[in-house]
Specification:
- The complex is a heterotrimer of chains A (99), B (266) and C (638).
- By secondary structure, chain A is mainly alpha-helical.
- Chain A is 79% helix and 0% strand.
- In chain A, α2 runs antiparallel to α3.
- Among the domains of chain B are: 80 residues, Four Helix Bundle (Hemerythrin (Met), subunit A), CATH 1.20.120; 64 residues, no CATH class.
- The model of chain B has no long low-confidence stretch (mean pLDDT 84).
- Chain C has 24 helices and three strands.
- In chain C, strands 1-2-3 form a three-stranded mixed β-sheet.
- In chain C, a hairpin with a 2-residue loop joins β2 and β3.
- In chain C, α13 crosses α22 and α15 packs antiparallel against α16.
- The chains are: A mainly alpha (99), B mainly alpha (266), C mainly alpha (638).
- Chains in contact: A-B, A-C, B-C.
- At the A-B interface, α1, α2 and α3 of A face α1, α2, α3, α4 and α5 of B.
């Protein structure tokens, strides 16, 4: 089995995740797209572990999952808080960054 | 005679799970409803779990299913229910040029990564047979509690901080004193006196032979429906059943009963 | 006029001399006390001030007495206090040089100063800011003593600036009068021009000699290139011109008469304006090496003595006549200082006698103003002799002293200077003699217009004699106006000889030399001319100044010095200032403002990029990542 295929797949998923972040307005979907990008990175890690014959890649992937779990918890709490005050989850409406 | 190509199980798995994962990802970014996106995401994640399995990462296969698909995606769905599961996103792009540029950038990034990372791979894969000789989980455990033990400990701190942070963010502090029952009663009566608010409990939803769902409003003596008997949320969603519909159901039922009685009479 | 010795050996101070610094410290401390004390000291503060000056005078007198008892070569004493600061190889000490020259000055400053302080008690009795006035006077005394007692040019410069400050504060003391405020500014600013010369001179000393101490400069100036010596001489002359109101920086002195009269007497007649003479005499070693600069000093002195006499002849304001006279007399001193040799001692001699009789006459003028409701126009005076008998008598003594009646103080000092001038160049001497004649003329005019003739008082004015606290200082000063010359003429040249280093002294031979007779004749001519013009019984002096010929008009307008200054200096300077402001506004500011506008415009257009949409930022960021990745890959390939 050619490891390159897995890498290409990971790359494709990463690009799709990027597109999701850039295109979607629902904060939850944007957030899921970010998760997709993380997953794509994980896939690449695992594929490289296969390529190099070492388990360190899988280890890194595992840590990414842990960090992602923590990140999701905090991120979702933020989304809930924003929804509570602004009654919306659209990232376009949270344009308070504007001068 | 066409030679049968030599394929391995891993290859077969890849060519099935890979396109499905891509489909899921496309669904994630294309479905207008967030729930569908989430379900597409679940599909992708399961496919990825399968791919991990084919890459001899059995432990990660399990963790992917349990942590990602089981915990994280469920959390997403919970939140989605809180903030409106059915809400759909408008197709109209509000930011000028955002869509075209986003697609361009995504494609460019894809090409860049393909070229950059793909070009970095040289030679055949070593394979994990040797590393997994003592079992994948055992091998990972040796790394986790050996080489990466400090990182592992740090992770625990990270998780605790995240848990506390989430609680702090989601917590609504009580600003004032909790009102006593007496104060609540007094307020209710004063509201009735000044604003005319109904002081008692709201009427129940209607109970009919055909239905007693909360979407069915109670009927007033004059035959109209009581708006107060149904949750306002349901009214906004349009889930409420109006009086003619209720009457129609009853009429249908009576008609059916009368038909049966007529048959019996005959 | 060859040198006896170029350097004067300074002995370390012992005994009394180590306390010389308290002469300065006490008035300075009292000045600070009076300024800070507030209203509490209003009733008795002036007595403290008088006490401080009297204290300084008693110290000076003790030092003088001690000095007289010492051998001539051991009289110059140095009392170092501490090192002020060090810069590289240069060290600036604070120390006092008490020698034959500075002690005479100290006596004059504190002696005349004490009398004027006492006089001011009466003169300023009704001024509500009297305490402040006395504080300034004490500040002046402290600064002036610093000036004359300093043992180096830098400390001298501290005193030099200090007296300038005190002069400014006192000229503008009645600051509610715009003319007084303007006069203060004028004095201060014109003095800055002179200070520039002083600073240049100090810098040149440091560069060429490497020190600013008088003794070191005097002994080492011989080794300095003659061009530099000339330059230093001219710098010092510029400084002296500024402080002593010599041509062409004379303009401020006439306006300085806006100050209270005791100030005019102390600062603008007796002491501060003579600081330039002191400076030139103190720097005599420099001038001995540069005939050119010496000649410049002589010429400036001669021009000023005639110019001052001319202005004095044409003014109606009694104080301005006296101010012109002061300029003229200082011109004599500068002339003598420029001639050098034993004439240096004559400059100091005339300075001392002038200090007495001019202070006397200024205070007398103050007494008259006191009687005439602060009117200074002599055309409103006349026949005051009977009303103010004491002031008249003392003023008469001053008059006889200044015109040089044989036996009176001015006779000795001025005739000696004229002798020296004739000996130096006959035409300089002739001009000095002519100046003496004009002096006699305008002083006679003043006497007739003020004291004698018919009364031309304005209605409602009732002249009266001043209180005793004002007349006693007049009497004492009048006494010295009479005997000052006789007291000093026979010893002052030998007294200063070891310090100033000349071989022979000038003999005093008034009734045997031609210049002596010529001077007397010219003075008599001036007096007669004055009597003929203003004193004859049939002459009536108009109350309004009549139209006069061009010569008098020019004198009345201070020889158009202000107009000339305005055209020659002020206007070009103002134009330069306007040009710089214009350049600043149109070039520099335009550059800066243009840059600001440009930045603002760019920012305005860049601001549109800040949509506030998170996705735009995410897009930009991703594009950036893409770009960086591309660059990295391309560079790797290259």
């Amino acid at each position: 089995m050619n490891v390159e295929n897995y890498i290409y797949l990971a790359t494709l998923l990463f690009a799709l995740g990027t597109a999701g972040v850039l295109l979607r307005r629902n904060a939850l979907v944007v957030f899921m797209s970010v998760e997709l990008m993380l997953n794509a990175a994980n896939l690449a890690f695992v594929a490289f572990a296969e390529l190099h014959g070492q388990l360190d890649g899988q280890m890194a992937s595992f840590f990414v999952m842990v960090v992602a779990a923590a990140e999701v918890v905090v991120g979702l709490a933020i989304i809930v808080t924003i929804y509570r005050t602004r009654r919306s989850t659209s990232v376009d409406e949270a344009n308070l960054l504007k001068f | 005679m066409i030679p049968v190509p030599l394929v391995t199980a891993a290859e077969v798995t890849f060519w099935i799970a890979g396109p499905l994962a891509v489909l899921g990802a496309l669904g994630l970014i294309l479905f207008r409803r967030a729930v569908y996106s989430a379900l597409s995401m679940v599909l992708t994640m399961i496919c990825l779990a399968v791919l991990y399995g084919s890459l001899q990462a059995t432990f990660l296969f399990a963790v992917q299913v349990i942590v990602y698909t089981g915990a994280i995606m469920m959390l997403f769905l919970f939140v989605m229910m809180m903030v409106g599961a059915n809400s759909t996103e408008s197709v109209v792009e509000t930011i000028k040029g955002q869509r075209v540029l986003s697609i361009l950038v995504a494609v460019g990034l894809f090409a860049l990564l393909m070229f950059g990372i793909g070009g970095a791979i040289q030679g055949a894969a070593v394979g994990l047979n040797k590393a997994n000789a003592g079992g994948n989980v055992q091998g990972l455990a040796a790394l986790l509690f050996g080489k990466y033990v400090f990182v592992f400990e740090l992770t625990s701190a990270l998780l605790i901080v995240a848990a506390v942070g989430a609680m702090t963010l989601a917590h609504i502090g009580r600003v004032g004193r909790k009102p006593t029952q007496r104060e609540l009663a007094e307020k209710r009566l004063s509201d009735y006196a000044t604003k005319g608010d109904h002081p008692g409990s709201l009427p129940n939803s209607g109970v009919y032979a055909h239905t007693n769902a909360i979407t069915a409003p109670a009927l007033l003596p004059d035959g109209t429906i009581s708006e107060a008997s149904v949750s306002q949320t349901l009214v906004e969603r349009g889930a409420i059943v109006d009086a003619p519909a209720l009457a129609a159901q009853t009429a249908t039922a009576f008609k059916a009963i009368e038909a049966v009685r007529d048959e019996e009479d005959e | 006029m060859t040198l006896l010795e170029t350097s004067v050996r300074l002995l370390p101070a012992v005994g009394m001399f180590t306390w010389a610094w308290t002469m300065i410290a006490v008035p300075l401390a009292v000045a600070a006390f009076l300024l800070l004390a507030g209203k509490v000291a209003d009733r008795w503060g002036h007595f403290v001030a008088v006490g401080a000056v009297v204290y300084s005078f008693s110290i000076a007198a003790c030092l003088f007495a001690e000095m007289v008892g010492m051998a001539p070569d051991h009289r110059a004493v140095d009392a170092p206090l501490y090192t002020w600061f060090k810069v590289g190889v240069w060290e600036f000490p604070v120390g006092f040089q008490i020698d034959q020259l500075s002690i005479l000055f100290a006596l004059l400053i504190t002696g005349v100063g004490s009398l004027i302080h006492v006089y001011s008690i009466g003169y300023m009795a009704h001024d509500e800011r009297r305490r402040r006035f006395f504080a300034y006077l004490n500040l002046f005394v402290a600064a002036m003593l610093t000036l004359v007692l300093a043992d180096n040019y830098l400390l001298l410069f501290v005193g030099w600036e200090g007296v300038g400050l005190a002069s400014y504060l006192l000229i503008g003391f009645w600051q509610h009068k715009p003319s007084a405020a303007a006069a203060g500014n004028k004095a201060f600013i014109m003095n800055r021009v002179g200070d520039l010369g002083m600073i240049f001179a100090i810098g040149s000393f440091l560069a060429q000699v490497g020190t600013v101490r008088f003794d070191a400069v005097n002994s080492m100036i011989g080794a300095v290139d003659s061009g530099w010596a000339t330059a230093i001489g001219l710098f010092l002359l510029l400084a002296a011109c500024g402080k002593s109101a010599q041509f062409p920086l004379q303009g401020w002195l006439l306006d300085a008469m806006e100050g209270p009269t005791p100030v005019s007497a102390l600062i603008h007649a007796a002491t501060m304006v003579t600081a330039g003479v002191y400076l030139i005499v103190r720097s005599h070693a420099v001038y001995e090496h540069t005939p050119f600069a010496s000649m410049a000093v002589v010429i400036i002195g001669t021009v000023t003595l005639l110019l001052g006499a001319w202005i004095g002849s044409s003014k109606d304001d009694i104080k301005k006549v006296l101010a012109g006279s002061t300029m003229s007399q200082i011109g004599y001193m500068i002339l003598a200082a420029g001639i050098g040799g034993p004439a240096l001692a004559l400059a100091i001699f005339h300075l001392l006698t002038h200090g007495f009789f001019k202070a006397n006459m200024f205070l007398g003028a103050g007494s008259v103003m006191h009687a005439m409701d602060d009117d200074v126009n002599m055309r409103h005076y006349g026949a005051l002799r009977k009303e103010l008998p004491i002031t008249h008598a003392t003023f008469l003594m001053g008059y006889m002293a200044i015109i040089g009646v044989p036996g009176w103080a001015g006779y000795f000092s001025k005739d000696l200077i004229i002798d020296a001038a004739v000996e130096f160049r006959w035409f300089i001497g002739a001009l000095a003699i002519a100046g003496a004649g004009i002096t006699a003329f305008y002083m006679t005019r003043l006497m007739f217009m003020t004291w004698w003739g018919k009364a031309r008082w304005r209605p409602g004015v009732h002249p009266h004699e001043s209180p005793k606290v004002m007349t006693w200082p007049l009497v004492i000063l009048a006494f010295f106006s009479v005997v000052g010359g006789m007291l000093m003429f026979w010893w002052i040249q030998t007294w200063l000889q070891p310090l100033l280093g000349y071989h022979e002294t000038m003999p005093f031979e008034p009734f045997t030399s031609l210049p002596g007779w010529a001077t007397l004749a010219v003075v008599v001519l001036g007096v007669v001319l004055g009597w003929y013009t203003f004193g004859r019984p049939e002459v009536t002096i108009p109350i309004e100044a009549p139209k006069a010929n061009a010569f008098v008009t020019m004198g009345r307008n201070d020889a158009y010095a202000d107009a000339i200054m305005d055209v020659a200096v002020v206007q070009p300077y103002a134009a330069l200032g306007r040009g710089i402001v214009g350049a600043d506004a149109h070039l520099v500011d335009a550059g800066f403002m243009g840059m600001g506008t440009l930045l603002q415009g760019v920012s305005e257009s860049l601001r549109k990029l800040q949509t506030g949409y998170v996705r735009t930022y995410a897009l930009t960021m991703t594009a950036g990542v893409l770009l960086v990745g591309l660059v990295m890959i391309l560079s790797r390939m290259g």
